[in-house]
């Protein structure tokens, strides 16, 4: 098996984004996809790297953390800030400790001020979620319903709410060494340069000769872009779980 110029003479790993790759955005994996991934795993070890925190990844991929860890050889949340190999947990990286509370608060305050000036069809709650390794900023608010989520996403496509806010943040904090990356439907992630999905590769590169990454946000500005173009992986763009399944079916024949 050869893919994207990576030779086929080594130990392989298939590494997957979650939202839009194994599941629909923020939805639970389908029973068919779940079963299919276990068929894939009989041939090639599998890993996931999501931008979301571990609670959301567990909600989407299984019934409990133990269940998810038993289905995938490696599980990385927040781009790898929190990671597991089986039940072994890698050291947790903390944004506040690394970046400093002062600077972080300047970013938070700017976001709050910026969002207070936005007029949207609806605003819910939970506009800023602080995670281990990133801030997640949502102009509509993470407490929105599924319907409001989809409506915001459509509205954002027309009005570029997130893109404009990211532009303003990039200008304001040009010297902070931060990335502002749109990964899902209603929010964007803020983390230090280098804390993108390539972060998880440090735990994989010594053990695998071929790492194949599958993601849907592989264009510049998307949260799969950095790992997609990383020379240590072969990148594959998918457009949803059905496409991931179709591409994998071809590869493992
Ligand atoms: O995994 C992609 C993104 O998923 C969520 O995005 P949203 O809620 O906007 O659809 C978030 O957890 C985000 O952090 C993550 O990058």
TrEMBL record:
This is Phosphomannomutase. One of its GO terms (molecular function) is phosphomannomutase activity. Its EC number is 5.4.2.8. One of its GO terms (cellular component) is cytosol. It comes from Steinernema glaseri. The keyword Magnesium applies. Homodimer. Mg(2+) 1 binds at residues 17, 19, 216, 228. The keyword Coiled coil does not apply. Belongs to the eukaryotic PMM family. It is found in: Cytoplasm. It catalyses: alpha-D-mannose 1-phosphate = D-mannose 6-phosphate. SUPFAM superfamilies: HAD-like. Pathway: Nucleotide-sugar biosynthesis; GDP-alpha-D-mannose biosynthesis; alpha-D-mannose 1-phosphate from D-fructose 6-phosphate: step 2/2. Pfam families: PMM. InterPro entries: HAD-like_sf, HAD-SF_hydro_IIB, HAD_sf, PMM, PMM_cap. Mg(2+) 2 binds at residue 230. Alpha-D-mannose 1-phosphate binds at residues 26, 131, 142, 149, 187, 189. One of its GO terms (biological process) is protein N-linked glycosylation. The active site is at residues 17, 19. It is an enzyme of class 5 (isomerase). It comes from the Eukaryota. Keywords: Cytoplasm, Isomerase, Magnesium, Metal-binding. Involved in the synthesis of the GDP-mannose and dolichol-phosphate-mannose required for a number of critical mannosyl transfer reactions. Its cofactor is Mg(2+).
């Amino acid at each position: 098996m050869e893919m994207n110029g990576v030779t086929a003479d080594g130990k392989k790993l298939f590494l997957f984004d979650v939202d839009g790759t194994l599941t629909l955005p923020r939805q639970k994996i389908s029973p068919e996809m779940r079963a299919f991934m276990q068929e894939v795993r009989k041939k090639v070890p599998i890993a996931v790297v999501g931008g979301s925190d571990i609670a959301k990844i567990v909600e989407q991929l299984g019934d409990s953390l133990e269940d998810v860890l038993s289905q995938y050889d490696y599980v990385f949340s927040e781009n790898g800030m929190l990671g597991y190999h089986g039940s072994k947990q890698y050291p947790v990286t903390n944004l506040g400790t690394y970046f400093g509370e002062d600077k972080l608060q300047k970013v938070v305050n700017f976001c709050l001020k910026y969002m207070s000036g936005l007029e949207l069809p609806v605003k819910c709650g939970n506009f800023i979620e602080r995670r281990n390794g990133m801030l997640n900023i949502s102009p509509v608010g993470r407490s929105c319903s599924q319907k409001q989520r989809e409506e915001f996403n459509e509205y954002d496509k027309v009005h570029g709410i997130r893109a404009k806010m990211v532009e303003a943040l990039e200008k304001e904090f040009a010297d902070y060494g931060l990335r502002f990356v749109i990964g899902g439907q209603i929010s964007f992630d803020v983390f230090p340069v280098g804390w993108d999905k390539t972060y998880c590769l440090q735990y994989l590169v010594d053990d695998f000769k071929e790492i194949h990454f599958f993601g849907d946000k592989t264009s510049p500005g998307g949260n799969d872009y950095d790992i997609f173009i990383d020379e240590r992986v072969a990148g594959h763009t998918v457009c949803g779980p059905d496409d991931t399944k179709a591409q994998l079916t071809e590869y493992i024949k």
